[in-house]
Amino acid sequence: MVNLSPCLVLSWILAIMCYFHIITQAYQTKSTQNISSFPNSYPSEVGSGFNVIDSCWRKDSKWASNRQKLADCAKGYGADARGGKNGAIYVVTDPSDHPIHPKKGTLRYGAIQKRPLWIIFKRDMSITLEGGELFISSYKTIDGRGARVEIANGPCLRLDNVSHVIIHGITIHNCLRGRLDLVRHGIRVTSSSKIWIDHCYLSKCGDGLLDITQGSAAVTVSNNYFTQHNKVMLLGHSNMYLKDKKMHVTVVFNHFASGLGQRMPRVRYGYAHVANNKYDEWGFYAIGGSSHPTILSEGNHYTARNDPRTKEYVV
Ligand SMILES: *[C@@H]1O[C@H](CO)[C@@H](O)[C@H](O)[C@H]1NC(C)=O
Ligand SMILES: *[C@@H]1O[C@H](CO)[C@@H](O)[C@H](O)[C@H]1NC(C)=O
């Protein structure tokens, strides 16, 4: 507690608040990142070392000619997510964004169509969304494989009252509030089901990196890389929101890397299976819950930062 001496003179409650405040401040950093410096989260050797999800598609060196096979590869509660399977391929060619009248060729135009679409990207691109969050409609896959695609420095992604959405291989960072809304999440999933978020890179947003709330169910969060953010993943909206009792989420094969504070995940009411994740460090805690959640945590690998406060809860 050497750095917290002002707190010591106060009650233990204030001590916790002080500590929490320091941690929160530490993770409010904002900076832009270099798209070519993002870690490549795919295993490098084809045929070895794949987990059960990756081996399903990645062992096939011709995966790019059978992209929709990916939809059969999810495990856990989101395994039924079909995404845009059996729909047309839609190619994003234009990184610009027009929230009111989206142009053909942009991500927003494809993502809001009613019919199933498998959305891919013609080349590497950095997309800054304008106005407000991009509300993705049901039966969509956003498939970043083969291109480096980032959504950054503006509003980011929203799934609300939808089902069958797959988001794979997209980098999302520095999500900011748009002109038309107040939200600063990376990916926000509300009242939705059959959702699979796989191999995304998420960091540095104004609010949760990946929050799954308001009666969402049947979700898998796998193979993602989280870094540089305080409140990582909230499962369950609030203590008053009893619909989250039906929530069931699988959190598997994720890498919770450097500079994270808490909520990996934090669970309210529902059921979370948290397995085979790697935790490099945390500022406050890694997995937590309140309001009678059930958390099955198994096979996770934890390394605490070299700071006694993160190894044992000391007040
Ligand atoms: C991005 O990173 C690459 C490789 O590390 C480097 O060559 C390039 O100069 C960087 N670009 C910027 C804008 O920092
Ligand atoms: C959710 O979507 C369904 C159609 O898929 C619609 O009938 C319903 O009104 C929507 N609910 C809300 C709260 O928007």
Automatic annotation (TrEMBL):
Its cofactor is Ca(2+). Binds 1 Ca(2+) ion. Required for its activity. Residues 124-308 form the Pectate lyase domain. It comes from the Eukaryota. It comes from Coffea canephora. One of its GO terms (molecular function) is metal ion binding. This is Pectate lyase. Pathway: Glycan metabolism; pectin degradation; 2-dehydro-3-deoxy-D-gluconate from pectin: step 2/5. Keywords: Calcium, Lyase, Metal-binding, Signal. Its EC number is 4.2.2.2. Belongs to the polysaccharide lyase 1 family. Residues 1-26 form the signal peptide. SUPFAM superfamilies: Pectin lyase-like. The keyword Metal-binding applies. GO terms for biological process: pectin catabolic process. It is an enzyme of class 4 (lyase). It catalyses: Eliminative cleavage of (1->4)-alpha-D-galacturonan to give oligosaccharides with 4-deoxy-alpha-D-galact-4-enuronosyl groups at their non-reducing ends.
